[in-house]
Structures are given as C-alpha cells and as structure tokens.
C-alpha cells in the first residue's frame, strides 16, 4: 500500500539514493531539508518541506502540513571537513534533533520512524564480531564519547516511545558514490596521500555498508520488519591490514606505510588509531534472518572495485 513518507537528510548520500526507490514503490515522498537550494534535480521528491531538526516548532508545522505515515531520519554532520566539528554537529542532531523528530512524528500520527545509527559506536570487546545486543561505547573518550552518547539517546527516543513504531539502523562505514571513500573524498585523499597508515598488526575491524545497501534496508523497513535495532552491514568485516592495502591498490595510490602504535599515537588523532587497531565489526544476521534482506554488495571487495571502475557491469 502506498504511504506518505518523509525523508530528513534527503540531500545526503543515502537520502539521494533512497528517494527514487521510494517513489518507484509508489510512495508519496517528501524531502525534508534545511535549505531548499541544496535539493536539485538529482533528488527526486513529490514534495519539499523546509525545516531544521533543531527547530521543534518549525518541524512540527511542516510535518502537520505533510501528514506522513513514515518518517525517516538520514541526517548527519559527518560531511564536514573537520572531523571534530562533524562529530559535534552529528551529536547535536542525534540528541536534540532526533528527539524533536520523534515528538513531531507522534504529534501528526505517523506510525513508524526510522533512525540512523552506526556500528562503529559499539564498545570494543576482544576480537568479537558484534550483534545488536552488544553495548555501545558510551564512556568512550573525547568527542567520540559525546557522539556515542548522543546515538544512544537517539536510539532510546526512537525505540521507547509507545506511540510509534521505532527502528534504528546501525550502518557500517558508508561507502559508494559521493562518500569519503569515493575519488576526491576524505578517505581517498588520505590514502592517496600516504596519510592513513597500517598501525601495528592492523587488527581493527571495519564493517562496510554500501549506500545502495543502506537505502535498500530503509526501503524494506518502511513497510516490513518488526520495530527494533538492526545492523546494516556487508557480509565481510575486514581488518585494516586487509582492506586498507586493497583499497590503496584499487585507488591507484601508494601502499600504506606502517607505524607502531606509539608512532601512530604521536602522529594521528585518537579516533583513527582506535579504528585501525581495536574497533570491532558487526554481523548482519538479524536483518538477514528476520527480514530476508541481502546486501547488493556482499563484500567491500566488489564494492570498492566498482567504485573505481574495476568491477564488470
């Protein structure tokens, strides 16, 4: 049955991929944006709502006008050049903006809200690949801890409200066109500039999520699936010693240099060292088994190859 769907963050990499998929399913799609001039022809929508998630009155006004059945939050501050500023902006969006969005969605009678979280927020634990029952690292240091606590607050707001069905999707490292991993993106620049090294034995695990698979999971959960938390990742969590050299080769960059942990801590920010040495990956078992979801890109290997024109088709 066609639904009225609002997508916040419609100009982001997942939002732009998601909008045409929703319309192809017959849903009436409203793009919720802060600035209408950022929404060009590349983001097809039936309607446009202009509001800031941090402006609760304006947000409620726009949602009352639209009257959505489902509200989807794909907003993020990670597109900013400065990592710490991106973390702060994202924390603010998750802690305050998401609460405003839940309250507005309930007020206008929406039946389901889908929020965006991330598997990188899991507390590291040995060499385990983590599932949705694993704890978030809410006492992590610095800006990262602030961001994780905000994610936990967002998930609580989305999942515990009795008046709406709440879904939280925990993405892995998003890659694909127009992401940090694409040519010209931040990760691409760091790798090609020999600024992202291998550290120690490189056992930090990353779970990757292609933007096509993130959008596909949202699409499936608009009309199906039980409320709750789902990891949206590919089938192959990868240690940095594996994915980083492979990415460098496909990008045409130099082989990554190798640093000890002490050298890395002296030269790199804390978060990068954590990701390369102790971060844990995640399993997509719950989403596969309960919803029958399958990633279009089962492994980052094929996804990276396609990103650089090295994959057939």
UniProtKB/TrEMBL annotation:
Listed GO CC annotations: cytoplasm
Residue spans crossing the bilayer: none
Domain NAD-dependent epimerase/dehydratase: 5-232
Coiled coil stretches, renumbered: none
Stored Gene3D superfamilies: NAD(P)-binding Rossmann-like Domain
Pfam families cross-referenced by the UniProt entry: Epimerase (PF01370)
GO molecular function: aldehyde dehydrogenase (NAD+) activity
The protein, known as: Nucleoside-diphosphate-sugar epimerase
Organism: Saccharopolyspora spinosa
